[in-house]
Specification:
Layout lengths: L13 E4 L2 E4 H5 L3 E6 L6 H12 L1 H6 L2 E7 L3 H15 L7 E3 L4 H5 L14 E6 L5 E7 L7 H14 L4 E2 L10 E3 L5 H7 L5 E4 L2 E4 L2
Helix pairs in contact: 2-4
The protein binds benzoic acid.
Benzoic acid (BEZ) binds next to helix 2.
């Protein structure tokens, strides 16, 4: 299997989930999507991660982003575990979890890293754009829970820069200054950003989005 890279078409699949059978591309429609894997049901870090995603699901919704989780456990385990997540994390899991028992999706997306663990999926994240191209990949080990607020921050950057000649600097958050792409001339920058920009260096020009 070729490693999925930025810009690649997100592979389509049909899979069983806690919200019924899902055809991935149909389910995405024209929305942005986040597909993320976790190593296993009934494990502590994964319990906190899925609880956290449920708690901030409205932030994904506001951005037009559909969220879906995956592990290679079976559907009945997923349903029992959801009760534990809801109870211990004081939330209500409100997004589908794929039961990828035959590892079909995990293999399609390279979510099993045999030198880390040959049975469980690692903590993969794929952010998928509205044309179903992969916009970001992240891989965390089983021992490290992800920061889902960082995923929201990346989505803000991806959505802001999708149709503007801008990029976002280190630690950027929504509302802060962006940088003008180096490919944009000063002439063009004046037209594109009529409120002006600050030229710190010829290659480092800051402006409000
Ligand atoms: C966890 O989610 O806590 C976990 C899962 C697999 C290995 C280690 C930790």
């Amino acid at each position: 299997m070729k490693t999925l890279q930025l810009g690649d078409l997100a592979p389509d699949f049909t899979a069983n989930s806690t919200l019924g059978t899902i055809n991935f591309h149909e389910w995405l429609g024209n929305n942005w999507g986040v597909l993320f894997s976790h190593p296993a049901d009934f494990t502590p870090v994964c319990t906190t991660e899925l609880g956290q995603v449920a708690k901030i699901k409205s932030q994904f919704d506001e951005r037009g982003v559909k969220v879906i989780a995956l592990s290679v456990d079976n559907i009945s385990d997923h349903h029992s575990w959801i009760k534990d997540i809801n109870e211990t994390q004081q939330t209500s899991v409100n997004f589908p979890i794929i039961a990828d028992e035959d590892r079909k999706v995990a293999e399609l997306y390279g979510m099993i890293h045999p030198n880390a663990d040959d049975k469980m999926t690692v903590r993969s994240v794929f952010i998928i754009g509205p044309h179903k191209n992969i916009k970001l990949t992240l891989t965390y080990p089983a021992s490290t829970g992800r920061n889902f607020q960082e995923i929201i921050r990346v989505i803000d950057s991806l959505q802001l820069t999708a149709n503007r000649k801008l990029a976002t600097p280190a630690n950027w958050n929504q509302g802060e200054e962006c940088v003008i792409l180096p490919s944009v001339s000063n002439e063009e920058a004046k037209k594109l950003f009529p409120k002006g920009y600050e030229e710190v260096k010829p290659y480092l020009r800051l402006t409000k989005a």
